[in-house]
Input
Amino acid sequence: GLRRFKGTVDGSPSSIIITDRLGRVEYANRNFLALSGYSLDELIGQNVSILQPEFFSRDNSIMWERLGCGEKWKGEFLNLKKNGELYWAIVSLSPIFDKNGEVSHYISIQEDITYLKRKEEDLKKSEEKLRILFESLPEGILVTDLDGRIIQVNRACLAIFGFAERGDVEGRNIHELFDAAAD
Output
């Protein structure tokens, strides 16, 4: 039983760590060790808080409340490797129950999403650059959906049509806007 369980956990493509009720590491699979840079001997008995950077403070009370009630929890964590490098992981935490139905351990299954987070940041930076460009162009620009509803305008467009606020234009149909301008 236990040997087969360990073989399954070690063979998992996910990073898995098992702790006692107080968050002390009792086991980590090969993928977790490779990701974190720690050896199993270095982790055993350590609190999982060593994997959290000091500046990354978050209120985990809801997570612990759910786990304490025997429920699962899923979220994102910024983790710290042994070498000090940071990585983002999507984490699924589940309680493990003893024969009396009490929570005895927790199992954490993690997927490294650092690459996705970096791409997300790059996309945000690109979107911000485009927004600045869109707003600074002297030409009036408006964007509509397929039904002709205006979903975005720049400042120059507002000035051309004599509107002070985006809310005066966005959401209206483009034909309505041009009909009003023709009057």
About this structure: The chain has seven helices and seven strands. The mean pLDDT is 85. The first strand starts at residue 15 and ends at 20.
